[in-house]
């Protein structure tokens, strides 16, 4: 149980009506029932707010717009979601008799919620193999625009670029490496490129996944790179050259 004692000095604004009636004041044939005149506005959803978190979110109002209320918190109980307060009306610059009221409907203590929480609400632990088994192939984005050697030496220049061009084709759909890093930040990923072949437009990529003390290596042969342009054939000789040799030959 959390107890607080503090003072609201909110002008012409206030909290919820009290349970019982009373506190009637008559002035020039005008009768004000302070218990019914006081109003409580909680600026956020009470059901998602602990009572102990609510003081800054409470606005005190006067339904008649003629009364100023000073509200003193007597007790806050997060387990029951209730707040006990004492309200002091000030009408025409005169302090009136105080009264107590209860504000309820707040979220109940998270201690109780945690005890009743289901396993699904807790972060699920997973093994490295559970994740790598979902990766059925690995590929490079934009590979069709580059010859293998050019792709390696002009595109794969930084970790940031690797994050953009490496694609894990997973059971749930393609995932960029940078997204994988974000979702599985506890998995370390390392790469080793080998046996690149410009003529065939292929390369072999080893991907090493490490989590805790477990390591898994996936090897992928990546195809579909741009093939190098074939060498241009030599220009045919003009058959008349033997009769009319060019100058300087």
UniProtKB/TrEMBL annotation:
Residues 47-108, 179-226 form the Lipoprotein-associated type-17 domain. It holds the Pfam family Lipoprotein_17. Residues 224-249 are annotated as: Disordered. Residues 232-249 have a biased composition (Basic and acidic residues). InterPro entries: Lipoprotein-assoc_dom. This is Lipoprotein-associated type-17 domain-containing protein.
